[in-house]
Each structure stands twice: as structure tokens, then as C-alpha cells.
Specification:
By secondary structure, the protein is of the alpha+beta class. The chain folds into two domains: about 10-70, no CATH class; about 80-200, Aminopeptidase (3-Layer(aba) Sandwich), CATH 3.40.630. Helices cover about 25% and strands about 35% of the residues. It has five helices and eleven strands. It has helices at about 25-30, 40-55, 100-110, 160-165, 185-190, and strands at about 10, 15-20, 30-40, 60-65, 75-85, 95, 125-130, 135-145, 145-150, 175-180, 200-205. The protein has an eleven-stranded mixed beta sheet, with helices on both faces. Strand 3 (about 30-40), helix 2 (about 40-55) and strand 4 (about 60-65) form a beta-alpha-beta unit.
């Protein structure tokens, strides 16, 4: 069992203020820095935050927030995509509350480990199993009008999983988020007719200085 690590909502350093997301370090080895304000040099404050995250065990550190990161390479761009419910095809699959949270969590963490900026799940919330003819074909999460996560466990079942979860969403417009670099998911949402999306977040890597 990995030790729990808490995030630091307000980290005040010598060079600025940031939120440090450390909770993913024990599971993904990743620290995230959301910069709120910079007092002086952005580079110095990024170094300060990175050092703190690495002392906490982070192998990689990513940055976002209120700063100009134009000369730093992008790690991932998170897009908000949407579609009118009536445009989604009908499907025979159904989404039901999971009866096995531990199995659901294992599937989730295996499926989302390679997805940029995805979070490790320690406690499933709003978790659903997606069934077709009584067989598990995927898992997902839904809150109000938003599909929080979706993953097929049966090859080729992605579209049915999305449509099954959409049945549970409130309202006429269905929303979800997707990492632009997650090409299989992006292509699936394109095929289903989701909007091209608007930028929700951009996370950056710190640039590497030439030697």
C-alpha cells in the first residue's frame, strides 16, 4: 500500500505562490505545479517548486497556471469537448453503478496510466460498470452533464461505452475532457461527432538548458 501524500493548496516560496499537486507522486511519480503568482523570475520560481516536488519524490514535474510558459515545451493540452445528446447513436449497452469498486479501480488505473495528466484513483466515486448482454465492456464516471472518465475493456467497444454513459448525463449537452495527445480517444470523439473542443488546461515541461 502506497503512503498517501497530500497536496499543498498554497505554497509560498521565495519567488511566488503556487499550488503543489503532490498526491500523484506515490503512484505516477508526477508532481504538478499550478502557479498563482510570480514575484520575480519565473525560471527561478519554477526551479524552486521543482526542487520541492523532487524532494517529495517526484520523478517528473509539470507546470501550468498564471505565467507565460511560451518558451517551455508542452506536456499535454486538455480539451473540453461536447455534443448534443440527440446526435449520439443509439446503443444497447447500459451503465450501472459498480458492485465491485476494487475491480473497477484496478481497471481504471491500468487503462489511464499512460494517459497524460490522468489521476490515479484511490477511491471510486460516481463509478459505473458498462454492460452489454450482461457482459462487462467498459467502465466510466458521470456527474451531472459530464462524462468524467470512460474506458473500454472490450476491443472496439469505446463508442458504446460513451453512449451508455451519456444516457446518465443531465440535460441536452454532453461534456467531457480529453488530453489532445490521447489520439485513440480524440479519434473516437471525432467519429461520434463531438465538437473540436476548447482548451481547458495546458501543462508544460520545464525547458532543458543546452550545455
Amino acid at each position: 500500500m502506497e503512503a498517501e501524500m497530500r497536496d499543498i493548496p498554497i505554497f509560498t516560496g521565495c519567488g511566488g505562490i503556487a499550488s503543489l499537486i503532490l498526491s500523484q507522486i506515490p503512484y505516477r511519480g508526477e508532481g504538478y505545479v499550478l502557479i498563482r503568482s510570480v514575484f520575480g523570475s519565473l525560471e527561478d520560481f519554477m526551479n524552486e517548486c521543482e526542487s520541492f516536488c523532487r524532494m517529495a519524490g517526484a520523478k517528473t514535474v509539470f507546470f501550468s497556471g498564471e505565467a507565460n510558459f511560451f518558451d517551455h515545451p508542452i506536456y499535454t493540452t486538455l480539451l473540453e469537448r461536447e455534443i448534443l445528446r440527440e446526435k449520439l447513436p443509439a446503443c444497447a449497452a447500459i451503465a450501472v453503478p459498480t458492485r465491485n469498486p476494487s475491480a473497477w479501480m484496478q481497471i481504471y488505473n491500468e487503462k489511464f496510466l499512460p494517459v497524460p495528466a490522468a489521476q490515479y484513483c484511490r477511491e471510486p466515486k460516481n463509478a459505473f460498470d458498462i454492460l452489454k448482454d450482461g457482459k462487462l465492456i467498459g467502465i466510466g464516471q458521470v456527474v451531472q452533464d459530464k462524462i468524467l472518465s470512460v474506458a473500454a475493456v472490450e476491443r472496439g467497444a469505446g463508442a458504446e461505452c460513451v453512449c451508455a454513459l451519456a444516457k446518465l448525463c443531465e440535460g441536452d449537452m454532453i461534456h467531457l475532457s480529453c488530453a489532445e495527445e490521447n489520439l485513440p480517444a480524440m479519434k473516437l470523439y471525432d467519429r461520434l461527432g463531438f465538437s473540436q473542443g476548447r482548451v481547458k488546461e495546458i501543462w508544460y515541461r520545464k525547458k532543458t538548458l543546452a550545455i
